[in-house]
Write a structure and sequence with these properties.
The chain is 78% helix and 0% strand. It is mostly helical.
Length: 113
């Protein structure tokens, strides 16, 4: 029974993380003008990815991890990406927050969540 409870708990946590990720993705898509489908797209291979699209995806990962306290490993399972990729995206956005315009943009998004 203990194993079954753990699995049910993981599914519930993953569902919550997915809902939070989708909420952030919709907000970022609206704020950046990047279609939500591009943020949710499975990967970069074979696509022409602009800086705006890459930033929108990284910002979505960053806000989901930092604002909602979703562990990078759980978010990685939800979006089917390696945990290291999520962690790297969060680090990149943290470094970009040194720029006043990026920091202001992210602060406005955080206030809307």
């Amino acid at each position: 029974m203990r194993g079954r409870r753990a699995k049910l708990c993981l599914k519930r946590d993953s569902a919550g993380a997915r809902a939070q990720f989708l909420r952030v993705a919709e907000l970022v898509a609206g704020a950046t003008g990047v279609p939500i489908g591009e943020i949710l797209a499975p990967g970069r291979r074979g696509r022409d990815w602009s800086q705006a699209r890459c930033f929108a995806r990284r910002a979505t990962f960053y806000l989901t991890v930092t604002h909602f306290d979703v562990p990078a490993s759980r978010l990685a399972r939800v979006v089917d990406r390696p945990r290291a990729r999520i962690s790297h995206a969060v680090q990149l956005v943290e470094l970009e927050r040194d720029k006043a315009d990026i920091d202001g943009f992210l602060a406005r998004l955080e206030a809307m969540l």
